[in-house]
Amino acid sequence: MPKYVFAYHGGGIPESAAAQADAMAAWGAWFGSLGEAVIDGGNPTGQSKTISADGSVKNGGGTNPLSGYSLINATDIDAALVLAKGCPILSVGGSVEVAEALDM
Known about the structure:
By secondary structure, this protein is of the alpha+beta class. The chain has helices at residues 17-34, 77-84, and strands at 3-9, 38-44, 49-51, 57-59, 66-73, 95-101.
């Protein structure tokens, strides 16, 4: 079955402990609803840097930096998009980029 990377952009860490607990509960519920489709729940990401072809290094991510990722099984990209539409990051103004992870 094809694998898909869910690349999360935007969002943020809620400030209060209660809001953080609510966010974690939402993510846990969403991952639970995905069931066996989840290969690797992934992790949030921290600061990034981008290396260009000329060897220069800049702060990574530009205007829409990566904030985390997951690896999911789905029958095709349309099925992966359906799964991604439930992601909690969407409710806080973030986005999910869905890309097939090609086997090499």
